[in-house]
Amino acid sequence: MSTGFARTGRFSPIGAVDLEVAKPSHPIGATACNDTYEANLGLRPLSADLSITQPDAVADHFGFAAPDVDVLISCAPCTGFSQKQSRNHVTDDARNHLVERAAVFAEAWKPKYVVIENVKELLRGRHKHHYQGLHRRLTELGYEVFAEVHDLKHLGLPQGRIRSLIVAKLGGHFHWQVPERTSFRTVRDAIGHLPAIEAGMVHPDDPMHVSPRTAGVSLDRMRAIPHDGGSWTDIPDKLAHLRIPSMNVEKPGSFPDVYGRLAWDRPAPTVTRECSHPGNGRYSHPVQDRLLTVREMALIQGFPADYQFLGSLSFKYRQIGDAVPPMVAEQIARAILTDIGEDTTPLAQCKRQLALAV
Quick check: is 78 catalytic? Predict the structure, then answer.
């Protein structure tokens, strides 16, 4: 999100917070996302738990005052809202309360805008009361809230990605007309220009153009899946030994994206945090026998072509899958610039934003 705002040339980050938590089995800091943020944006995020960290502590750490904050960005974890997590049908994840927590920071700093992105279930799902609580509190503080669910391919992302987009404006109405496209950017548009590379190899001109090594049965399975949109359901019976137990041949339509190849001339399916393995979704190259490289995955997720990721290879993929597509964030930022009439503001008079992430 911060990258998209910064790419306008009229916003700059003055603070960022991320606890860098991945799975419970991983220690805090293991994701290296704060290293990546610092490498690309020049600001070292504070590693802290925003459920207990107070606004004054954040402001003091970075040395800014409330009037410096024009935009507050709050992107709580989506895991507790996603319908793909079966436990969410019966349990309300404690992290979901971080959505409402954004109002605490809005009250302290009174930013002109509050921006939030999350899965569609934040607005429509079982635990939408967290959004309703946030809406109620922001309204009490004088904000008018814009909230809609959109498929981000309508914003030019070469990927089907349905998300809740929320912008709250202090003391006024925010209107954003998201375009309804009839044609969409495709996988070919996003990555078709990149040079071919073998799995496990690093391209000499781009260290991000690298994917995990594939060998043995895994490679044979990938080779058996037809090019340009093929699925595990296309593996012929004579190669049935390449199927894994979860490939339920009794129901050939089950989970067709597992080990699937992307189709050149369609948008990609949703990129998730588990995109580092071909068995987790349709993440294989349309014609090359490998997982998409870090660079390819990043381009499909709307990252700039020069963006650098730090950490282990698996965490580079996780950082991509967990991110708000910068391409979409930039369009939100430009909509805000239009709203405040700042399209022609010189860079020397750039506005500031605070990226608040967990």
Answer: yes
